[in-house]
Amino acid sequence: MDLTGGFGPRSGVGPVTDDEFRQLVTTMPPENTGGSFTALLEMPVTQAMELLHFADSSSSQANITKLAGDNIAPPHDPFGTLTFPSNSLLLDRAARFSVIATEQNGYISSADTPSSSANLDGGVKAEPSETDSFSENQNSKHNKRKEREKKGKSSMKKTKSSVEEDKLPYVHVRARRGQATDNHSLAERARREKINARMKLLQELVPGCDKIQGTALVLDEIINHVQSLQRQVEMLSMRLAAVNPRTDFNLDTILASESGSLMDGTFNGESYHQLQQWPYDGYHQPEWGREEDHHQDFSNQVKMEL
Amino acid sequence: MSSYNMVKQEFIKKWITTLHILDCSVEHPLNVTERKNAIKLSSDIAMAAARSSSTVWSRALISRSGNKTANKPMARRVLKKARNRMKNRCLTLRRNGNFTAKSGVRRRTELLKRLVPGGELIENKDYLIRETLDYIVYLRAQVDVMRTVAAVDSVTGNLTNDNN
């Protein structure tokens, strides 16, 4: 089974990535501390969305090279395919951001980066005060953002080395100090960097994880978090079972009150109306169930019951 | 308008569906434990369904729940598709056997793989972390919704009992 296929196009039922990206890009305050990547954040939504989606690479590459200036080597796809054979789409993404990443890394090595990264963090962390109080939402948006950023970094070294490979007949790859220059170890390093990037995302999603250094401890925290969430589900379902004499709760009243608490003050008239209506519409067709007739039966049943 | 709210809405929609179906297809179990299992099962299926089966964990959760509800018609219908997908992968895993790891990161990733449904089927650590991210978001949505429902229930429980 191709796992990667699942992460490509999203359906409307699983609204995790696309809307978050859109909202993130529109609500994120512009950062002016230099670096082409932060300039990327100021780009208009459509352009940024092109970069994020697996769209055609030509137009976005043009944008990137425009942004990054002319001292950046263009991404090398043939070399990339050597080390990322699994997903060409991921590859495209990484290649596109490699030009940005070279700039970004240059900034990181210099002294004024703490300010830029701090500004980035500050800019993103200012979001929760603006929007609603669900930190998970912000964090996952932030995560996907940083995920892109770090993904670019991972192919940075490869593009540098690939540029040198093109010039010389021998494989003279200039690596970082104290690190092997093997093809395999390069791939390993790139992979590790990607994983570390994702770990940082998880760090932000799991509360209280920012100060921990080291992959193992972060993984510990994540495991604890997942375990505690699962235990909470158990306890809450036990509680719900204890309160109600039957499994079929009185859902009308619960819905009415829940819509209020969910909307959290930003109470849209139309969304409430939508909530009221949908139990009686045909249910939205889930991906896995192409049984239209069955769902129609159940909706009729529900109408009769309620 | 935020996407987290949308996640919760999706979850609620699916949960109500599955609860109704479960309730119709089963003679009323009076035992608290059975009720709790039914609620948890329905909410798990709802959570996985809300994620639209484009993630590994949602498919794995659905197929895992299928074993528990073998008699229930809804589950069988719903799970047929997802279960076939997961079956092949599970078989290959069982054949490979278990490898216990001692060093820190390796051991913890295996632990994480056991926690996240379907995690054992993911070889690449990269995808495992992505799945975990997704799973945590939806798990939190589930917890939030259930907590709200429980809070409301404790308040209105007396009223409904009186009406009945």
Q: What can you see in these coordinates?
A:
The complex is a heterodimer of chains A (306) and B (164). With 306 residues, chain A is an all-alpha fold. Chain A is elongated, with a radius of gyration of 24 Å. Chain A starts with a helix and ends with a helix. Chain A is built from 16 helices and no strands. The N terminus and C terminus of chain A are likely disordered. In chain A, α2 crosses α10. With 164 residues, chain B is mainly alpha-helical. Chain B contains 6 helices and no strands. The model of chain B has no long low-confidence stretch (mean pLDDT 73).
List the helices and strands and how they pair.
The complex is a heterodimer of chains A (306) and B (164).
Chain A: H1 3-6, H2 17-27, H3 36-41, H4 45-52, H5 57-68, H6 77-83, H7 88-109, H8 113-125, H9 127-130, H10 135-154, H11 156-167, H12 183-205, H13 215-243, H14 251-263, H15 269-277, H16 292-305
Helix pairs in contact in A: 2-4, 2-10, 5-7, 7-10, 10-12, 12-13
Chain B: H1 3-25, H2 32-50, H3 56-68, H4 73-96, H5 104-115, H6 125-163
Helix pairs in contact in B: 1-2, 1-6, 2-3, 3-4
Cα separation of the termini of chain A? 42 Å
Kindly report the oligomeric state of this protein. Answer: heterodimer
Helix content of chain A: 55-70%
Spell out the helices and strands of chain B N to C.
HHHHHH
Beta-strand level of the residues of chain A, as a percent range?
under 5%
Reported for the largest beta sheet of chain B, the result is: none
The largest interface is:
A-B, 90 and 88 residues
Low-confidence runs of chain B: none
Pfam families (chain A): HLH (PF00010)
Main location (chain A): nucleus
Protein name (chain A): Transcription factor bHLH48-like isoform X1
Subcellular location (chain A): Nucleus
